[in-house]
Amino acid sequence: MKKKEIYLKWCVYKEHPEPTSCILALPGRGQSGFHMASTYLSVTNSPKTLIIGVTPIGFQWYPMPKGPYDQYDALNGLGIAVKTIDDVVNRIIEKYNIPADKISIVGYSAGGVMALMAAAHLPQHNFASITCHAGTVLSPDELPDCANTETELLICHSQDDNCFDWRSRYMPTREALRKKGYNVQFSERREGGHSIFYDDLKKATNIMESKFG
Questions:
Q1: What's the pLDDT score for residue 12?
Q2: CA atoms of 73 and 204, how far apart (whole Å)
Q3: Is 131:106 a contact under the CB 8 Å cutoff?
Q4: Beta strands 129-133 and 183-189: pairing type?
Q5: C-alpha 86: how far from chain center
Q6: What is the DSSP letter of 124?
């Protein structure tokens, strides 16, 4: 394993001998890629869509921020994590001959942060879609302009999320994504906490499958 990689392993939860598309599932802190991949299995209809989950070493993509105004260590760790996602995507393209525009990235919590980072910082990949469940951009003021407007983003968040606060975390992300020209839609709830909802899984799947063909 190369030193720049931070993932422990990846699992192909749903495989096909001739796949044409892929869902790359990024788990939250303390969870496995297997768990996140299996979450999407129940809502995915396309038989030729791979579902791949990635587990980072120590079950975390980056160090835990101390808060929205004290996240130096977390931001420093994001660069390595983004390179890891890029490496995984390149392996999928090479191994399965699936182009980037047939790859969708989905993430929950810290995995959602990484999904948004992939959308923002991997412009060489024109992904089919990006879905973030209960995550945000850690540094919205530094978000680059959108490079791939064909990539559809879905951001799902609850107002009572106790991990990524609505006012200090979510709203700045929401404003930055719109200001920077990302092709984004939002699924917002008054109540729901730090969770993934079936309706949001279906919305994400519908977007993917419209791109997968």
A1: 72
A2: 31
A3: yes
A4: unpaired
A5: 12
A6: T
What b/e readout covers 154-167, taking b as 16+ CB neighbours within 10 angstroms?
bbbbbeebeebebe
Cβ 120 vs Cβ 95: under 8 Å:
no
User: What is the phi/psi pair of residue 27, to 5°?
Assistant: -80, 165
What is the pTM assigned to this prediction?
Answer: 0.91
Q: Which residue has the tokens 């942060």?
A: 113
Q: Are 169 and 193 in contact (CB under 8 A)?
A: no
State the DSSP code for 167. I
In this structure, the number of other CB atoms found within 10 A of the CB of residue 205 comes to 23
Q: In whole angstroms, give the CA distance from residue 166 to residue 189.
A: 11
Q: What is the pLDDT of residues 17-62, one digit of tens each?
A: 899 999 999 999 889 998 999 999 889 888 899 999 999 888 888 7
Kindly tell me the burial class for residue 139, based on how many C-beta atoms sit within 10 Å of its own C-beta (0-12, 13-18, 19 or more): middle
User: What whole-number distance in Å separates Cα of residue 187 and Cα of residue 183?
Assistant: 14
Q: Determine the Cα–Cα distance for residues 62 and 131; give it in Å rounded to an integer.
A: 19
